Known about the structure:
Elements: H1 2-21, E1 30-35, E2 45-48, E3 53-61, E4 70-75, E5 81-89, E6 97-106, E7 110-119, E8 125-133
Parallel strand pairs: 1-3, 2-8
Antiparallel strand pairs: 3-6, 4-7, 5-6, 7-8
Amino acid sequence: MKSRTLLLVVLCLSASVAFAAAIKGVTGGLTLVEKNAGNANEKTDITVEVGDKIEITWTYPITPGGTPTNVDSKSDAEGVVKPGDILTIVKPGILGAGIVGAFFKAEKTGKTTIYFNINDGGTGARLACDVTVK
Length: 134
């Protein structure tokens, strides 16, 4: 029974990707990796296509010592995945928290690790994501 359920989930995910690719006007994909203090150390592995964008977001409490004072992004192989803009993200309805996001672009096939570094004057965070570009 478990294998049938897994097969159904895989088929549904494959179908949703195929349908999204068939939408007229869509020019690529964006993979969103959401991080916060609760999951900052969890390993994240993603697979994307050449030309796709990747966004790593960091949600933080708006408190003294919780708000980032400095952020930067990096890729171990910038020829495979290139760092881009880092932006403040506005999500209506969110109170008491802020979001900042680092954007990356998959340039060519290969593997790399990308990082979004958060300095908040305290412990901060180094968010890492292993990326395979097909």
